[in-house]
């Protein structure tokens, strides 16, 4: 597991009507290409790194790093499949959209609660 995501919620506050992809990227602290990988996996569940790399027109190492980040954020699941001729391969599936939306709501609620706490606890000493 990597460090906690670095939310970019300030970026969202600057836009009056941000697209869903931007909301995902900012709230989960992921790059736009990682959000794109998540969305492609929603359409192509069970994809391998090679298949996803072809769909995204990215190299395997970039896709592998993206998938690692998405797994750390709980947005992608990796399953190992045994091959008939021996060996194995990993397949990746995106978390369901309702689950991802719930995770977005929870992250925003936690951030909002923190901001409310900061406001409530502020005391400039003049009262």
TrEMBL record:
<protein>
    <submittedName>
        <fullName>TrmB family transcriptional regulator</fullName>
    </submittedName>
</protein>
<dbReference type="Pfam" id="PF01978">
    <property type="entry name" value="TrmB"/>
</dbReference>
<dbReference type="InterPro" id="IPR036388">
    <property type="entry name" value="WH-like_DNA-bd_sf"/>
</dbReference>
<dbReference type="InterPro" id="IPR011991">
    <property type="entry name" value="ArsR-like_HTH"/>
</dbReference>
<feature type="domain" description="Transcription regulator TrmB N-terminal">
    <location>
        <begin position="25"/>
        <end position="80"/>
    </location>
</feature>
<dbReference type="InterPro" id="IPR036390">
    <property type="entry name" value="WH_DNA-bd_sf"/>
</dbReference>
<dbReference type="InterPro" id="IPR002831">
    <property type="entry name" value="Tscrpt_reg_TrmB_N"/>
</dbReference>
């Amino acid at each position: 597991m990597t460090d906690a995501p670095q939310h970019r919620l300030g970026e969202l506050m600057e836009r009056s009507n941000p697209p869903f992809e931007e909301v995902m990227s900012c709230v989960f602290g992921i790059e736009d290409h990682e959000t794109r990988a998540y969305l492609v996996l929603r359409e192509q569940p069970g994809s391998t790194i090679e298949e996803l790399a072809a769909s995204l027109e990215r190299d395997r190492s970039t896709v592998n790093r993206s998938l690692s980040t998405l797994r750390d954020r709980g947005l992608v699941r990796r399953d190992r499949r045994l091959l008939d001729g021996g060996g194995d391969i990993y397949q990746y599936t995106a978390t369901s959209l309702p689950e991802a939306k719930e995770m977005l709501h929870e992250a925003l609620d936690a951030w909002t609660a923190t901001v409310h706490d900061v406001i409530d606890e502020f005391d400039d000493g003049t009262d």
